[in-house]
């Protein structure tokens, strides 16, 4: 029988029991009528049309049971049952004496059975159906068109009335059973609720529409150190810090208004007196339907002082770290400014000495010393300028002036500036630019610095005889510029650290390649200032590919691109600088 209960009713044992009883009773009534039909045929012969219709009415409980099993609509099933029983009683009464028929006693059973539905609408409808049946019989009698009554046995009246009374008694017992089951379920639910509330470590409260507490669980002692009765009414509200009371009341009001769970954090006074210490509490509240008092708000409140202390410590640590970072950036910027002035003087005077403008050196090594001083000063000035740029980027003070910048001109300018270093390392340079590239919308000086840093890294980490490729292509709404080398490559575990200031893949003091670890971090910062992206693909012994994506100018039609690119003679041009 459980398999015939609709899925919508299986979640509640009380509801499922009612569905099960209804289906079982109607199946039994319908099957009894079907089994009685062969007995009638055996002892009374073929039934008259009136009896045949009565038999058909007697089996209607079967499709009504199927209706409830398929739809789960309990009230509607009871309404159909009332309609079926009323029709059957009216039909039998019409052929057994009309308004004087003893079968009319069953009309009193119709609204009584409908009461099992628990729906006032169904009970009223059933009573109306019974009254309509009586009205129809009265109208037939008044019009003088009542059917000819059957010859009835003297036992017919007692049997019909007795069965109606017996069925009414069974319905009364069923109603009492349903009422007891509902009362027991409510008592069990209340017991479970009390058990959970009494043993929960969080405070559970039930609130009225104005925020007053109607119930507080025993966890009040553990949370605020007072008996639950002290929180009833406005006791909890008076313990909320005065500055947090609007948030407390707003959470309860929003939960009641929206029907959703609302969370609020506030300070709650603990202890028995009015001067106890405050703890941080988190309250999560949501509305529920209480059968006794209607709509109410239930809240669960817990102590989150430890979490708030951790959040405060974390916020203070973040603030301290930000201040330290700002101080570091300011220090580096100041230091860079202070160093540039003497370095410019050192470079300028060493250049004068190297050119022997004030007379030739007596010894050639003095000329070499001047050259070393100038080259060392220039190297140190490059480091200082890089540090200054990095400081500006981190501090958000690096200004960029965007404009359309042709990619071909940008690449050629950077290659020309690096040509001496490329030639001195005996490297092969490949320039591979896609025809019809749109200009990038970027700062020209920043873009040149990006390319120079990438080329400088490629030259530094590529052995003599290696190849450096500068390639560019359009993708979506941007342009990708790639610098590809056949150098030593980078280990996979070092890739995530690259782009962090002062971080190098080889950080050992005796490393083979010099540098500060700022070049790639400057590139990364400049790319991000333009809203672009940086990607690194590398492996030891396989070389490195660094891809920079920058926003591009709106693409031009093909005819315009051919005119604009008339100077791009070939898709790929190789240049060897010896």
UniProtKB/TrEMBL annotation:
SMART domains attached to this UniProt entry: HATPase_c, HisKA, PAS
UniProt signal peptide: none
Catalyses which reaction(s): ATP + protein L-histidine = ADP + protein N-phospho-L-histidine
Record-listed E.C. numbers: 2.7.13.3
Main location: membrane
BP GO annotations: regulation of DNA-templated transcription
Residue span, PAC domain: 262-316
Uppermost EC category: transferase
One cellular-component annotation, GO: plasma membrane
Transmembrane segments: 20-43, 50-68, 88-110, 122-143, 155-173
Keywords annotated in UniProt: ATP-binding, Cell membrane, Kinase, Membrane, Nucleotide-binding, Phosphoprotein, Transferase, Transmembrane, Transmembrane helix, Two-component regulatory system
Residue span(s) of domain Histidine kinase: 334-554
PAS domain sequence ranges: 189-259
Gene Ontology MF annotations: ATP binding; histidine phosphotransfer kinase activity; phosphorelay sensor kinase activity
Top-rank taxon, per record: Bacteria
Subcellular location, record wording: Cell membrane
The protein's name: histidine kinase
Native organism taxonomy: Bacteria, Pseudomonadati, Pseudomonadota, Alphaproteobacteria, Hyphomicrobiales
């Amino acid at each position: 029988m459980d398999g015939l209960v609709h899925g919508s009713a299986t979640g509640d044992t009380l509801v499922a029991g009612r569905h099960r009883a209804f289906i079982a009773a109607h199946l039994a009534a319908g099957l009894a009528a079907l089994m009685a039909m062969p007995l009638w045929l055996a002892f009374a012969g073929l039934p008259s049309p009136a009896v045949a219709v009565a038999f058909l009415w007697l089996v209607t409980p079967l499709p009504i049971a199927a209706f409830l099993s398929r739809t789960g609509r309990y009230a509607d099933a009871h309404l159909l049952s009332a309609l079926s029983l009323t029709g059957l009683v009216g039909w039998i009464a019409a052929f057994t004496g009309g308004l004087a028929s003893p079968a009319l006693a069953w009309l009193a059973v119709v609204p009584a059975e409908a009461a099992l539905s628990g729906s006032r609408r169904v009970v009223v409808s059933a009573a109306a159906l019974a009254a309509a049946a009586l009205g129809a019989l009265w109208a037939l009698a008044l019009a003088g068109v009542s059917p000819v009554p059957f010859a009835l046995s003297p036992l017919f009246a007692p049997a019909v009335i007795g069965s109606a009374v017996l069925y009414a008694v069974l319905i009364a017992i069923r109603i009492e059973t349903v009422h007891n089951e509902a009362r027991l379920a409510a008592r069990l639910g209340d017991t479970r609720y009390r058990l959970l509330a009494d043993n929960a470590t969080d405070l559970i409260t039930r609130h009225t529409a104005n925020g007053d507490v109607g119930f507080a669980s025993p966890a009040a002692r553990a949370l605020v150190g007072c008996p639950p009765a002290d929180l009833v009414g406005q006791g909890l509200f008076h313990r909320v810090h005065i500055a947090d009371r609007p948030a407390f009341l707003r959470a309860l009001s929003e939960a009641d208004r929206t029907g959703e769970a609302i969370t609020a954090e506030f300070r709650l006074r603990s202890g028995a007196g009015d001067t106890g210490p405050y703890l941080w509490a988190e309250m999560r509240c949501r509305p529920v339907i209480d059968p006794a008092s209607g709509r109410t708000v239930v809240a669960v409140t817990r102590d989150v002082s430890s979490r708030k202390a951790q959040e405060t410590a974390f916020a203070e640590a973040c603030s301290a770290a930000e201040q330290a970072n700002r101080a570091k950036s300011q220090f580096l910027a100041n230091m860079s400014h202070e160093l540039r002035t003497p370095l410019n003087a050192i470079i300028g005077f060493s250049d004068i000495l190297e050119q022997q403008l004030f007379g030739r050196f007596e010894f050639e090594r003095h000329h070499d010393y001047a050259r070393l001083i100038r080259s060392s000063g220039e190297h140190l000035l490059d480091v200082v300028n890089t540090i200054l740029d990095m400081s500006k980027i981190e501090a958000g003070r690096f200004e960029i002036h965007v404009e359309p910048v042709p990619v071909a001109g940008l690449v050629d300018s950077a290659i020309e500036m690096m040509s001496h270093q490329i030639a001195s390392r005996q490297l092969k340079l490949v320039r591979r630019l896609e025809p019809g590239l749109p200009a990038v919308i970027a700062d020209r000086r920043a873009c040149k610095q990006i390319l120079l840093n990438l080329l400088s890294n490629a030259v530094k980490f590529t052995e003599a005889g290696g190849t450096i490729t500068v390639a560019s292509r359009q993708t979506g709404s941007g342009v990708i510029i790639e610098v590809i080398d056949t150098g030593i490559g980078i280990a996979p575990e070092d890739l995530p650290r690259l782009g962090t200031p002062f971080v190098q893949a080889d950080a050992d003091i005796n490393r083979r390649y010099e540098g500060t670890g700022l070049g790639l971090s400057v590139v990364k910062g400049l790319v991000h200032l333009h809203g672009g992206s940086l990607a690194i693909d590398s492996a030891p012994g396989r070389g490195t590919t660094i891809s920079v994506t920058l926003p591009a100018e709106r693409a031009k039609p093909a005819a315009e691109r051919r005119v604009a690119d008339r100077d791009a003679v070939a898709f790929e041009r190789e240049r060897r600088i010896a």
